[in-house]
Amino acid sequence: MPVYEYECGTCGGRFEVLQKFSDPEVSVCKLCNASPVTKLLSPTAFVLKGSGWYATDYPSEKRKKAMESEKPAAEPATSTAGCSAGTCGSDSCPSKS
Ligand SMILES: [Zn+2]
Predict the structure, then answer these.
(1) Which of 49, 68, 88, 90 could hold 83 in an S-S bridge, CB 3.0 to 4.6 Å?
(2) pLDDT digits over 36-66, tens only?
(3) 86 or 40: which carries more pLDDT confidence?
(4) What is the domain class of 2-46 according to CATH?
(5) Domain map of the chain by residue range?
(6) How far away, in angstroms, is 14 Cα from ligand 1 center?
(7) pTM as predicted
(8) E strands present in the chain
(9) Distance in Å, CA 17 to ligand 1 centroid
């Protein structure tokens, strides 16, 4: 769940709100209860506790490389990208298409 940062137009204070993507935007300052407040761009942090969705549903190139580097170096067929004979046994192997 991302943490959004808001800046108050009245007191100038900044505060963070933990929100789901579906939650409505905060319109009242947490510090002085005035409005309007401005939502600052881009979440400042993700709360990763108890969640692995970011790794399993949205694999990044960086993450993939990290996973590959964790494998033993002695296996030559771990990379499906370079496989041309189906030896990797992967359903996503380009040679099976
Ligand atoms: Zn305020």
Answers:
(1) 88
(2) 999 987 655 555 555 555 545 555 777 778 7
(3) 40
(4) mainly beta
(5) 2-46
(6) 8
(7) 0.42
(8) 2-8, 14-18, 37-39, 45-46
(9) 14
